[in-house]
Every structure is written in structure tokens, then in C-alpha cells.
């Protein structure tokens, strides 16, 4: 099978944002403009393309990490969904692991919010090239320059401002494109779906020339020859300027910043242009590292001719296709019918079907190549983070890190039938989500589930009920082992057992905090009144 697009026309991107910054709206507009979406609906109507799961729509948060393929300017853009809620940073992390570039979205009123900061740090860790989209420019109080300043100061980004807003709030009509030195104005009659180019408005001419000069200076610094020519008085033309910005972005030296209002359909098309112009293709990214089975470090090139290697980054139950394993193919080619090796587990798996997910269709395909993100069906025992590869060239790709759960609850099925269904439900949910753990209380024999936060566990329990018809009583959340007290794990374990024995649904929350080194732990009874006296003042480690 020939590839539909050469590798340099691939963009595997994520859109990262604090909850409510407008990620769902923006994604939906992208899918609309790229021609793959059905209709433009508002989030609260529940038609947003990426929000597949019922409960996501109810809660207005995106918790899955599926990928959607669309096309822009003859480029193949795979959008990997990244969740915005703090309980799901682990999901953000795993999606960052498989994408090549990201668009960080900000609310122009709120600026840099806590979750945008967390995601930014994670993207730093994985060295993901980024651009920023300052959304909600139509809102009262929208402050583009304030947001840019926050991005610089709080996130330490070297921002390259590529656009200036033409007015803000209700008057926001367009942007000045500093690269082209033109204004882009959206037509009100088509609710912003169409736009035209115009001269830079006189009121903005001076500001635009200052910002353009700054942009050119930042850009030429990305290349010695360009700097020299610039010093001799030669300005880069539009194509050269774009190439320099692209170089700086991929090298993590520049972060292009654009603005708009996804909700009012302003700014999304230029943002897609910028994804194509500035974010990396799989070829711009380093070879993916791994270890061979003998423990020797090894790597794979992004190349169709290399042996197949891919990383499973999401397992999810699709209402139409059953269990799907989303895989990023790093090298080689994988086809339907192939026997592949799950090198992490040391087992072979068969690929029975392969799907490409579009906004509203699932395309049945025969094979996938380096750079692709596809959903595989038929894998029996592959979980998130596993490496799939050619059995003749085994390797395990860089591992994803899954933190220990921070919170636990006891779940007690209501009937025997619920009990049986729960066992299956928990097994499947744990396969989908490595940050979710299932265990048994040593003393009481009850099932204990652990996760990244209360909302995380709430969603798990909700999914058990909806998807597997399990009715269960849920105990009060308890703080699970924290990484900070790992060295004191034994003490914590003993105490946890003792506390557990106090009663199955005791209304207590414990905070384990290490105090002075060697002095043991301090315990706080967050609810009060229920802790036996001997726990109240801590125990020696
Ligand atoms: P997410 O949580 O990041 O996915 O954010 P949503 O896309 O669900 O948006 C959160 C809210 O902000 C919704 O009510 C949207 O209609 C609204 N919203 C999104 N983009 C804009 C925008 O550009 N301007 C305004 N005024 N509201 C927006």
C-alpha cells in the first residue's frame, strides 16, 4: 500500500488546555473546517466531535485520548485528544508521548491557568514543540498582551507573536498577520466561516511595525546565515521568515503565538495554517529510543522500510468496533492479519482489523505506516504503554511512567450478579487506564480501587454502572500511598491496615505527611472525631 501522504506532510498534534479554555470548541471547529465534521454544534448540545462518551458530555470534560484524522492544505493532521482536567494528567502525559507537536490553548481572560502550567511542564519534559492559541478574544476582559506576558513569565516561553488582534471583546473582528503584514478579517455574514485579506488598519500600523520588526529579529537569530544577511540590510521574505520560525519552533527555541475566538469562528483557519507551517512532521523528530531484548539501548528510524515498531497509548471500548487499541506507528508497516510481538509482555498478538478514526466515520484500512496513528482491533492482552513490534526485530520502546494512585475507595457490589460483572468491568477498565489500580484489602477482603483523584474514581464507578451495569456501594475516599512516603512504605502500610480495620466505610480522610526526616509521620484527621486516639498524634517510623 502506498502512503496517501509523504511523511513530511504528516502532523501528529495535540491540543492542550486548562479545562474550559475552549479545547472542545476549537477541535470541533477544526474538524468542521477540515471538512470532516457533520455540523457545528455547541458543547452543551452534546454534539462535540471528540466528546464521544456520554459522561464526558454530561460533565463537559474530555477524558479519552482518542485520535482523529483530518486533512488541511494537503497535509494529514492527526489530532490526539488530550484531557484538560487535573485528575487526568497521566492521560495528558501518555498522549504527549506519542504526538510530535502541540497547540497550547489559553483563555484570553484567564491567561495561564494551573492546568495549562502542568501540561506545559509535561510538554517540556517530552520536548514537544509548541505553538499557542489565545482563544476567547471576544470575551469581556480579553487581554492578548497580558496573556502573552503570562506565557513568557509563568511558562518561561520565548514567544514569537505572529498576530495582533484587531480590537477585542465584542469588537474583535480579525487579526494582523505579522508574517504577511496583512490584516485578516472575518465576515460577520457567514458567522466568521469566511474571511478576507486587507491592509493593516491605520490605527494598528505603528504597533504592527514594532511587533513585526521584533518577530523578524527573533526569526533571523535561528540561523547564522540569515542573521548575517539581516545585518547587511536584507530582510527575509515571507517564505524565508516562515522557514526560520519553523526551525526555531522545532528546536524548542521559539513558541509562535496566535489568537482568535473559536466560538465566533475567528482564527481557526490561520491556526491550522500555522500547524502545517510550524509544527514538526514525524521526520523532524529524533529517532525513537528503545531497548533490545538483551537490554542494549537501541533506536528506530521513522522509515517505512525499517521493521515495525509502535506504541499502544490508549485502549478504549468503542460502541461500534469493540475494544480498540490506539497505536502510534514509529517505524515500518503493520497490516491486517499480521502477527506482531507485544515486546513488553512477551506475547504475540494478531491484528484482526484496523481503523482510521475521522470526526464522524471510522475508515476500515489494511495497513499503517511509520508516522500513522491507528486503532487496532483484535489485540487480546495489550495495555497502554506496551510496545508492539516485528517479532523478528524485537525491542521495547521508551517506557511511559504511570504514577502510583493517590486516592483509594472500597467498592462493594450490591448483589452476586453485580459482583461477577464487576470483576470483568474492573479488569477491562484497568487495561484501558494504567493509572487506575484494583486491589483487595488484606483484612476485609473487600475490593479497593485506586486512582489519581476523586473525580477519576467517580468516573470509573460511573462507567462501571453505565457500561457494565454494576451497582455498587462506594466507601469514603482514603489517601493512598504517596510517592513522598515511599521510603516509609512499611509504616504506611501497617497504619493503613489498622485504619482500614476501623470500619469499612469510615468517614475519615488521612493525610500522610512526612515531617522531619526520621521522625515518622504526622496524621491529620480531615473530617474529625472518628480516629482512635492512638492515631491522632502520629507514630514513629
Ligand atoms: P474545554 O473544556 O477546553 O473543552 O472548553 P469548551 O470548548 O467546552 O469551552 C468551554 C466554554 O467556553 C463553552 O461554553 C464554550 O462555548 C465557551 N467558549 C469556547 N471558545 C470560546 C470563545 O472563543 N469565546 C467565548 N466567548 N466562549 C468560548
From TrEMBL:
<dbReference type="GO" id="GO:0005525">
    <property type="term" value="F:GTP binding"/>
</dbReference>
<dbReference type="GO" id="GO:0003924">
    <property type="term" value="F:GTPase activity"/>
</dbReference>
<feature type="binding site">
    <location>
        <begin position="135"/>
        <end position="138"/>
    </location>
    <ligand>
        <name>GTP</name>
    </ligand>
</feature>
<dbReference type="GO" id="GO:0097216">
    <property type="term" value="F:guanosine tetraphosphate binding"/>
</dbReference>
<dbReference type="GO" id="GO:0003746">
    <property type="term" value="F:translation elongation factor activity"/>
</dbReference>
<keyword id="KW-0342">GTP-binding</keyword>
<feature type="binding site">
    <location>
        <begin position="17"/>
        <end position="24"/>
    </location>
    <ligand>
        <name>GTP</name>
    </ligand>
</feature>
<feature type="domain" description="Tr-type G">
    <location>
        <begin position="8"/>
        <end position="283"/>
    </location>
</feature>
<keyword id="KW-0963">Cytoplasm</keyword>
<dbReference type="GO" id="GO:0032790">
    <property type="term" value="P:ribosome disassembly"/>
</dbReference>
<keyword id="KW-0648">Protein biosynthesis</keyword>
<dbReference type="GO" id="GO:0005737">
    <property type="term" value="C:cytoplasm"/>
</dbReference>
<comment type="similarity">
    <text>Belongs to the TRAFAC class translation factor GTPase superfamily. Classic translation factor GTPase family. EF-G/EF-2 subfamily.</text>
</comment>
<protein>
    <recommendedName>
        <fullName>Elongation factor G</fullName>
    </recommendedName>
</protein>
<keyword id="KW-0251">Elongation factor</keyword>
<keyword id="KW-0547">Nucleotide-binding</keyword>
<feature type="binding site">
    <location>
        <begin position="81"/>
        <end position="85"/>
    </location>
    <ligand>
        <name>GTP</name>
    </ligand>
</feature>
<comment type="function">
    <text>Catalyzes the GTP-dependent ribosomal translocation step during translation elongation. During this step, the ribosome changes from the pre-translocational (PRE) to the post-translocational (POST) state as the newly formed A-site-bound peptidyl-tRNA and P-site-bound deacylated tRNA move to the P and E sites, respectively. Catalyzes the coordinated movement of the two tRNA molecules, the mRNA and conformational changes in the ribosome.</text>
</comment>
